[in-house]
Design brief:
Elements lengths: L4 E4 L1 H8 L3 E7 L4 H17 L4 E6 L4 H6 L7 E6 L2 E7 L4 H11 L1
Parallel strand pairs: 1-3, 2-3
Antiparallel strand pairs: 2-4, 4-5
Helix pairs in contact: 2-4
Length: about 110
C-alpha cells in the first residue's frame, strides 16, 4: 500500500516495523489533536511514497503495542528503522518535520 497510511493491530505490529523505515502514529478516535494529525500523515505518506511506511495504531483497540513502547500521551509518533525506535514525537507534528526525520532515517 505505497503512498497510504495503513492501520496496524497488535498482532501485526512487530512484523510491520521489523524492516525499513516506518512512522507509527499512536492515536485514538476521541482525541482532538489526533484528528488534526491524520490529514498531515496522509500528506506525508503521499510525498514519501514507497520509501517508508506510514502507519496508525488505535490505542483503544491495540493496547499491547502502545504499552510496549510506553505511550502515555497521544498522539505519539514513533519512527522506527529496522525495528528499532530512532525518534519519538508527542503532540501534533508538522509535515515538513516528519518528512525531514524520515529522510534522515532512510
Amino acid at each position: 500500500m505505497a503512498g497510504g497510511v495503513v492501520e496496524l493491530t497488535d498482532k501485526e505490529f512487530d512484523s510491520a516495523v521489523a524492516s525499513g523505515v516506518v512512522l507509527v502514529d499512536f492515536w485514538a478516535p476521541w482525541c482532538g489533536p489526533c484528528q488534526m494529525q491524520g490529514p498531515i500523515l496522509q500528506e506525508v505518506a503521499g510525498k514519501i511514497g514507497g520509501k517508508a511506511k506510514i502507519a496508525k495504531v488505535n490505542v483503544d483497540e491495540n493496547t499491547a503495542a502502545a504499552g510496549k513502547f510506553g505511550v502515555q500521551s497521544i498522539p505519539t509518533l514513533i519512527l522506527f528503522k529496522d525495528g528499532t525506535e530512532v525518534n519519538r514525537y508527542v503532540g501534533v507534528q508538522q509535515e515538513a518535520d516528519l518528512i525531514a526525520a524520515i529522510e534522515a532515517a532512510l
